[in-house]
Design a protein that fits this description.
Elements (H helix, E strand, L loop, with lengths): L3 E6 L1 E2 L2 E2 L1 H13 L5 E8 L3 H8 L5 E6 L8 H15 L3 E5 L2 H14 L2 E6 L1 E5 L2 E8 L4 E5 L6 E5 L15 E4 L30 E5 L10 H9 L3 E4 L1 H5 L20 E5 L5 H4 L7 E6 L6 H4 L2 E4 L2 H16 L1
Helix pairs in contact: 3-4, 5-9
Bound molecules: flavin-adenine dinucleotide.
């Protein structure tokens, strides 16, 4: 008889997050044909997201829909998740390595008395063992880890594992009941989003980042235009954030966000090791810097030595021609 693999999926603004489809694929890669794949979706007003998720999951989508779960709150989410996990007795549970996943996964691990491997970027199955690859020392090295027992908890770094493909037939959708605890110690009243972009930086396929070289808040304008044209997001170095040119929610690096887009365009960023920690795994890196010795060129696939205020508008113009 097979084991049960569970994916804890996430929504944002009512829509299924792409990292959840990557987590579904992670479960596919780690499991065998006879194993069951079940996705759990927690939140409120989840009908559309559940229907979409069901297209990608082999066996079942279980929905826990309640107004108290509309916004992430650790206590309420664990109270909803724990009985479902007790019922399913999973072999492995997959989360996105997101703000929610990073908070909820260790609590689920403690509840199940499970081991956890976090921030996984690749999965390989050989014979009877599954190995999980994760970066170490801010991406300077990688380690392959294996579990020796179950239950197991995994978190998946966004944008590294190809999202799952639709299955031949949609999974069955069922509802689990959630009885809210009258004694929650914290209640989320409101979430104030600081992000200025419409596309989530950590899930964007294209990121256009500015450093101290942009010189002012207004200096980000050409970068925003390019990002919008390429349907990407704007990021920044800490240098730019510290200088007050942009909000810290845009910071990429060791103490900021980790991004792995298809294309990362670094404009006026020197390439300090702490910045590289947040973007060096991007598929294609394009660096624009007027200093030919800037360290960013060591990790760049394409380097443009020049003034970003000349180069970025030219790039935008050329991309506009190609895309129109
Ligand atoms: P600078 O190093 O000043 O580089 C600006 C670059 O712009 C230069 O290379 C210059 O040649 C170029 N330039 C200037 N004008 C133009 C122009 N007109 N056209 C083209 N190029 C131009 N940094 C991060 O980014 N993320 C982090 O998470 C982070 N965490 C840190 C944690 C710790 C504990 C510490 C100590 C530091 C951390 N830093 C982080 C800071 C990091 O060390 C660097 O100071 C920072 O990344 C530098 O930002 P920058 O490249 O924008 O600025």
């Amino acid at each position: 008889m097979g084991n049960t693999y569970v994916i804890v999926a996430e929504t944002r603004g009512g829509r299924l997050r792409q990292v959840s489809l990557e987590a579904v694929q992670a479960a596919v890669l780690a499991s065998r044909d006879e194993d069951k794949l079940i996705a759990l979706l927690l939140g409120h007003q989840l009908q559309e997201a559940a229907t979409e998720l069901a297209r990608y999951v082999k066996d079942q989508v279980m929905v826990i829909d309640h107004p108290d779960l509309a916004m992430y709150q650790a206590e309420a989410y664990l109270a909803a998740l724990a009985p479902a996990l007790d019922q399913l007795q999973p072999h492995t549970v997959f989360f996105g390595h997101t703000a929610i996943g990073r908070d909820l996964a260790p609590q689920a691990a403690a509840h199940l008395n499970a081991g956890q491997i976090s921030d996984v970027i690749a999965i390989a199955q050989t014979d009877d063992t599954v190995s999980y690859t994760r970066p170490l020392f801010a991406g300077k090295a990688f380690e392959n880890r294996k579990f020796t027992a179950s239950p197991q908890i995994i978190t998946i770094r966004p944008n590294n594992i190809t999202p799952a493909q639709p299955t031949p037939a949609p999974a069955e959708i069922s509802e689990l009941t959630y009885s809210p605890s009258p004694s929650l110690r914290t209640v989320i009243k409101e979430v104030v989003s600081k992000s200025i972009g419409r596309i989530d930086l950590t899930e964007a396929k294209v990121v256009v980042s500015g450093g101290r070289g942009v010189k002012s808040k207004a200096g980000f304008q050409p970068l925003e235009e390019l990002a919008e044209l390429l349907q990407g997001a704007v990021g920044a170095s800490r240098g730019a954030c510290d200088a007050g040119y942009c909000d810290y929610s845009l910071q990429i690096g060791q103490t900021g966000k980790v991004v792995t887009p298809e294309i990362y365009i670094a404009c006026g960023i020197s390439g300090a090791i702490q910045h590289l920690a947040g973007m060096s795994q991007s598929r294609i890196i394009i660096a624009i810097n007027k200093d030919p010795e800037a360290p960013i060129f060591k990790v760049a696939d394409y380097g443009i030595v020049g003034d970003l205020f000349e180069v970025v508008p030219l790039l935008t113009e050329e991309f506009r021609k190609v895309l129109s």
